[in-house]
Specification:
Elements lengths: L1 H17 L10 H4 L9 H14 L1 H4 L20 H4 L3 H10 L13 H12 L15 E10 L4 E11 L2 E4 L4 E8 L2 E9 L5 E5 L11 E7 L4 E2 L3 E7 L24 H34 L1
Parallel strand pairs: 1-8
Antiparallel strand pairs: 1-2, 2-3, 2-6, 4-5, 4-7, 7-9
Helix pairs in contact: 1-8, 3-7, 6-7
C-alpha cells in the first residue's frame, strides 16, 4: 500500500506540472535559417551584453552561473547547450515573438539590438572565438539636466584619462532608460560629440503618469564604471491614461501595468498547485489511516 501511495504521489506531481512544462519550441524553417546581419565583433558583442544585462538577466541570470529565475519552463543559461543549440535565426524569432513567460521584445528592442543580443549569446558558442575579456572598467562621470519645455535630456560625459585626471568622453553611446517597478528598460540612446556632450529628445511614444512625469536613468555601457544619474519625475513624457486595470499592456514595457492574461495564468497555476498539494496531503493521511487499520 505504501509503495502504491508513493507512486501515486509521483504521478500526481508529474501530471500537475506537465501542462506548464517546457514543450519543444518549433521555429519555422524560413525563420531559423536567417543569418545575423549584425557583424560578430567586439563592439556588437559588448553592446549586446549591455542590452542583455538590462532586459534579459533578470530571468536568464548571469552567463555561466545557472542562476535563472525558477520559472516553468526554466529560462536557459546563455552558455548552456540548450541555448547554444539554437540557430541565430531561431534566437531572433524567439526573442521577437516570445512565448509563455518569455516576453516578446518586438516592440521593446530595435531589430539591431535584438541581433546584438544574439551576438552576445554567440560569444559563448564553442564555434566562435570569445571576444569578451575581463578588462578593468574605465572610471567615468555623467552630468545631466532636463529641459522639460523641449522634452530633452542634456548630458555631459567624461572619463578618467589618467589617475585623477578626467577628459571629455567623445563618440560614446549614452543609454537612456525608464525606471519601472521591475527595473529599467531602455527607451533610447544618444552619442556624445567632440565636446563630450549629447542631447536626447524623448519620443512621443514614451508615456509617463497622468502628468507626463517619468523617472529617467542615464548610464553608460559595461565598459565604464560610473554612477548612473536618476532624473526623477521628469515631465518629458506623453501623459498616460487614467486608472484602467484592463487596458492593453506589454510585459516589462514602458507601462508598469502587468498583462491581465499573465496575471490570470499565474493565479491559475498557483491555484492548481495548491489543489494538488491539498489532494496529496489527503492521500497521505488516507494511506496512514489504512496502514494503521491493516
Amino acid at each position: 500500500m505504501k509503495n502504491a501511495g508513493y507512486y501515486l504521489l509521483m504521478i500526481l506531481f508529474t501530471l500537475s506540472f506537465q501542462s506548464v512544462s517546457a514543450q519543444e519550441w518549433i521555429v519555422p524553417d524560413d525563420q531559423s535559417n536567417i543569418t545575423n546581419p549584425s557583424e560578430y565583433n567586439l563592439q556588437n558583442v559588448n553592446r549586446g551584453k549591455d542590452i542583455y544585462l538590462k532586459n534579459c538577466k533578470s530571468c536568464h541570470g548571469d552567463a555561466g552561473k545557472n542562476n535563472a529565475l525558477p520559472l516553468v519552463p526554466s529560462p536557459p543559461d546563455v552558455t548552456s547547450e540548450k541555448m547554444q543549440a539554437n540557430t541565430e535565426g531561431s534566437l531572433y524569432y524567439k526573442i521577437t515573438h516570445g512565448r509563455g513567460t518569455m516576453p516578446q521584445f518586438e516592440t521593446q528592442l530595435s531589430e539591431d539590438d535584438r541581433w546584438r543580443v544574439i551576438n552576445y549569446i554567440m560569444n559563448f558558442n564553442s564555434s566562435n572565438e570569445p571576444l569578451l575579456v575581463d578588462a578593468p572598467k574605465i572610471n567615468a562621470k555623467l552630468l545631466c539636466s532636463v529641459n522639460e519645455n523641449e522634452k530633452k535630456v542634456e548630458i555631459f560625459a567624461e572619463y578618467e584619462k589618467s589617475k585623477g585626471v578626467y577628459d571629455k568622453l567623445v563618440n560614446t553611446p549614452i543609454l537612456i532608460n525608464a525606471k519601472k517597478t521591475f527595473g529599467s528598460i531602455k527607451i533610447g540612446e544618444a552619442i556624445t560629440d567632440q565636446n563630450g556632450r549629447a542631447v536626447y529628445s524623448v519620443p512621443e511614444t514614451v508615456t509617463g503618469d497622468v502628468d507626463g512625469k517619468i523617472d529617467l536613468v542615464i548610464s553608460l555601457d559595461e565598459t565604464y564604471k560610473v554612477d548612473n544619474v536618476v532624473l526623477a519625475d521628469a515631465r518629458v513624457a506623453t501623459p498616460g491614461e487614467t486608472e484602467n486595470l484592463f487596458k492593453e499592456t506589454v510585459l516589462w514595457g514602458t507601462n508598469d501595468r502587468l498583462q491581465p492574461w499573465l496575471l490570470v495564468s499565474y493565479l491559475s497555476a498557483a491555484l492548481g498547485a495548491w489543489m494538488v498539494i491539498l489532494y496529496v496531503i489527503y492521500l497521505i493521511v488516507k494511506i496512514k489511516l489504512q496502514s494503521r487499520e491493516s
